[in-house]
Amino acid sequence: MSKPRKNRIFAIVLITLLLLAVTLLSTLPGSPLNFITSPISILLEPVQKGLSKTVDQVNGFFSALSESIDIQAENQRLKAENAELRNQVDQLAEAGRQYEELKSAFKLKSRFDAYEIVGGRVMTREIGSWFDVFRIDVGSRDGFRVTETMSYAVVDAQSQLVGRLMATDLASGKVLPLLHEGFAVSAKVNTVSSPLFRVRGDFDLKEQTLCLIDQIPLNARLQVGDEVITSGAGGLFPAGIPIGRIVQVLENDDRNQRQAYLQPYVDLENIQTVFVMKAEDHED
């Protein structure tokens, strides 16, 4: 490159730097260059605005970047706190559930003091409708061994009849709900000296979540709204377990064939915890 050309480039760069320096100095308050360069500053105003806008954009970019990093860090912290709070809520809910189970077991024990009360959770339900057989985590290791002549009453946390234990293995058992057509129990109206009758599951009624009352004695007076409880006859179910209420009485010309419909108290669809009852004087 020739020497004159190098000189021209050097002069252009020098002049540009001087103009930028003058421009920057002229913007300072009280600067003597402010008066001297005022005509020049008019010409350089677009350059000043451009430089100022660029500086603002750069500052804004780095400020936004810094805020974004801070926000991400805050989000991570909040997520960790949220997870910890959810864990604490779950632990409290589980502790509350266990407390309610224990409280229910104590109530059952005080009401049926001649029986051992063991709580269990519903594990699985058989394929089909929700009132079919379901499995609980109570088995022979808990002292319950079902045989042809021995079974056990199953109730919910409100002491309401759920069904009976129909089979057990070491760690679990199968419960036959009272709506199942294979279930039956001796019962009576919750009044003094009420005659005994049978409450059983019925295939045609279980879709309506109803049980059938039959084998009604001639002297039994049943009315809609009557509460029905277990009679205790037969020794399988303790006397006094609430079953449900009568919702319809079917009169028949043959009074020996009288029937009624019963609405159970227990909510089989949403039940999660049950209690199995065993007479304390029963030997395995």
Task: Sum this structure up briefly.
By secondary structure, the chain is an alpha+beta fold.
Keywords:
six-stranded antiparallel β-barrel; 284 residues; alpha+beta; 3 helices; Thrombin, subunit H; 36% helix
Describe this structure in words.
The chain has 284 residues and is of the alpha+beta class. The chain folds into two domains: 3-64, no CATH class; 112-279, Thrombin, subunit H. The chain is 36% helix and 25% strand. The protein has three helices and twelve strands; from the N terminus they run αααββββββββββββ. The chain has helices at 3-26, 33-36, 38-111, and strands spanning 115-125, 134-136, 152-155, 161-168, 173-177, 184-189, 196-200, 211-214, 227-230, 242-250, 259-264, 273-279. The strands form two sheets. It has a six-stranded antiparallel beta barrel with strand order 1-2-5-4-3-12. A six-stranded antiparallel beta barrel has the order 6-7-8-11-10-9. The longest helix has 74 residues, at 38-111. It is rod-shaped, with a radius of gyration of 42 Å. It starts with a helix and ends in a 5-residue tail after the last strand.
SSE blueprint and pairings:
Blueprint lengths: L2 H24 L6 H4 L1 H74 L3 E11 L8 E3 L15 E4 L5 E8 L4 E5 L6 E6 L6 E5 L10 E4 L12 E4 L11 E9 L8 E6 L8 E7 L5
Antiparallel strand pairs: 1-2, 1-12, 2-5, 3-4, 3-12, 4-5, 6-7, 6-9, 7-8, 8-11, 9-10, 10-11
